[in-house]
Amino acid sequence: MKKPRKFGLYTTALFCLWMIAPSYGQITERPRPKEWDLLIEGARFKDRFLPMPKGKVITGSDWGAEGVRKRYIDNGSEDSERSYWGGNILKGDDGKFHLYVCGWPESSEKGHMEWPNSIVYHTVSDNSIGPYKIVDTIGKGHNPEIFRAKNGKYVIYVINGYYISDSYNGPWKYEKFVFDQRDRPIIEGLSNLTFAKREDGSNLMVCRGGGIWFSETGLSPYNQITDKRVYPAVDGEFEDPVVWRDHIQYHLIVNDWLGRIAFYQRSKDGVNWITDPGEAYTTGISFHQDGVKEDWFKYERIKVLQDKYGRAYQANFAVIDVLKLEDKPNDRHSSKNISIPLNAGMLMEMLNTELPSLNTKFVRVKVLKEPNFDPAKELDLQTLRFGKSELVNYGKGSRATKIENTKDGVIITFENSGHGLTQDEFAPKLIGKSKSGKILFGYTRVPWVAYNEAILSARKPIVNKTKDQQVFEVQVDNFGLVKSKESKLELYILDGEKKTLIASGLIAPLDPYAMSKIKLAGIIPLTKGANNLMKLVIQEKGIQKSTFNFELKLD
Fold this sequence. Notes:
By secondary structure, the protein is mainly beta. Helices cover 3% and strands 40% of the residues. It has helices at residues 12-20, 375-378, 389-392; strands at residues 82-91, 97-105, 119-125, 133-140, 145-148, 154-158, 161-165, 173-175, 179-180, 194-197, 203-206, 212-215, 222-224, 238-245, 250-256, 261-267, 273-275, 298-306, 312-320, 335-341, 348-350, 362-368, 385-387, 398-406, 409-415, 429-433, 439-443, 456-458, 462-465, 470-478, 487-495, 498-507, 515-521, 531-540, 543-553. A hairpin with a 4-residue loop joins strand 29 and strand 30 (470-478). The protein is globular, with a radius of gyration of 25 Å.
């Protein structure tokens, strides 16, 4: 394997500690947008958290602040010897659930601040909730996340590297990823990485700072394609992203650790994201069936467990009962990993083959029957709203008029008004309630949207001077899953809000993961010695597909 570029990764853990430690004593209450008060039940990701299954309640003199004295000690990973943190779950071929979690001795002199010396453990449970018991010690590492590479190998990411094996039971070998930043700044360093498998088995990766990267195999070099973060454009100390893909779309949750609020985002392609309103999670989301809350001080490192459709049906968190700096060795405070069930949503299918127009009589959606869910018996027709998520989340959308039973579910007829569907809406949403009052929701794809498109991305030009003019050579890569169409490449020089075209050319169709070097003849020469602010734009049939802003200095 090619020797990886270091990019200062050796100091990542120390850097993160330096950046965060001065603020551990602070909690900032972030103001919520006023319009969030109008959201209905089922609009927020937070609404998907379900009661924790009944377990064994703490007794005796075990650790825990007052707010978690009634916690389930057989939920997730917990013992008196270690503080646990991070980790995600894989369901094995053996039918058991495997949580790859990190931890350190509770007796450590530095208390919670021992985390840079974390050990990764392989823990196992007979069910997804727990308790998880250690079966193997894998090695040093923090914030693990397991995934399968395109070749079927198991990969456990940890800060600064990964462990790899042919089996989820090991043995494990430590390796290093290769990262190609492609002339772009790495946003807040390469730590706390999270991964989602694309439809062809390749990997999308999000780094802590919100940059998007692609690897063709999950082990081959990761290529950065963004030059700014994809997180919401709001104040926040963002970390702990988790990304996953289901049969409809990509999902991303990122946490503002200082404000103790997380945001939920969705994407068609994993590159362009929209932020749904409302909190993804906050404190107080872990509660028992009798209403008792486990009042953990912080919820971090969210990971999700997915079903065969990719839907998230369980969340796992690292939780701590006090401020991290207050967790001392051999005291009454610690951290653990907990499991919380999620409402996975309904399986749905859009039956209209074309975008509804004024001539469309009605909108029809099929909701499929599943084990433990029969829409014919459970759907409350009067509560159902369907359409553009921005509308449905606020109780608007198209109203249901009729439900017809089918062999495998129901067909719901909605009015052809109020849905707000457009050519760009890639995942219309349905929100409603069951006849017993439970929240129901679901997303569907639509036949008129292309879900797999080319993802063309340009690198910084190399400037060559001929006798009469400057020639810009630009490398363009296709990170999409389908062949690109002929596109246009434009190079601009920026002056404030003004942009001036200095070169342009055509990009011939490129296969997935293919590359081409385009030569552009300069119209206006660049000044030597100056830091030129530049912008590359890729268009297809007049529609802007990607941009890249950078500085270019000619010697």
